[in-house]
Amino acid sequence: MTSKIEDTINQIAEYIETCKYLPFSNNMIKVDRDVMEGLLDELRKATPDEIKRYQKIISNKEAIMADAEQKAKNLVDKANQFINSSVNDHEIVQQAYVQAGDIIQDATDKAQDILDQATIDANNIRLSAIDYTDDSLANVEGILSTAIETAQARNDALITNLQQYLQKISADRAELRADQEEVTGDTDRSGQGAGDGGSIDVMVGSGND
Q1: Taking the model in full, what pTM does it have?
Q2: Maximum distance among all alpha carbons in the chain?
Q3: Angle at CA 9, nearest 5°, toward 7 and 12?
């Protein structure tokens, strides 16, 4: 089962097959701008979901980073609240500082992990989108090349046929001219034979004789 983007590409190829060549050109065709823009608009609408997701992640990258920083800040605030609420005993305070440091470090690591993962996801989706788009364009390129080669072959075949017809017509005309010369020669010879037969004398008398 073909995808929407493949169907649209096939429609573009079929439309190109129906286009006529420009006068005195074997590789330039005339296309209807509205039809072509409509097909290209359908191609844009068929953009894969992973490309849209990549665009969404890139556009929301700042929001993702801000959210990670806010989570880290919340963890730090919790650590400070824990320190402030601890009993003012030296050993407990020291333990609280250690725990607070661990919490802060953990919050920092988690925030960095979130940012790193968001960057990795964005890059992976971008690479996937680039590969998919390049494959799609390569498919379009192949279809267009095949369409052009097919049209060129048809055009060459048409020229060959026309040349053969031209040669046949020229040969027929030459044969007709030969027949015409033969008929003309026979006519001339026939006229000369009638003149050699001699003259006929006619006597004209008066009415009183």
Answers
A1: 0.36
A2: 184
A3: 110
DSSP 8-state code for residue 196: T
Q: Structural domain tally of the chain?
A: 2
- The predicted-structure confidence for 193-206, as pLDDT tens digits, reads as follows 444 444 434 344 44
Do 99 and 36 share a structural domain? no
Tokens 């979130």 map to which residue? 114
What is the residue range of 68's domain? 48-182
Per residue in 85-136, pLDDT (tens digit) is 654 555 666 776 787 788 888 888 887 888 788 788 878 877 877 877 777 7
Both 98 and 154 in one domain: the answer is: yes
DSSP structure class, residue 19: P
- Looking at the structure, tell me whether residues 84 and 167 fall in a common domain: yes
Helix pair angle (90-195, 4-18), 10° resolution: 20
Same domain assignment for residues 75 and 161: yes
14-73: pLDDT as tens digits: 888 888 888 888 888 888 888 888 888 888 877 675 577 667 777 777 777 778 788 878
Do 105 and 55 form a contact (C-beta atoms < 8 A)?
A: no
Q: Are residues 24 and 110 in the same domain?
A: no
Say how far apart CA 153 and CA 30 lie, in whole Å.
Answer: 18
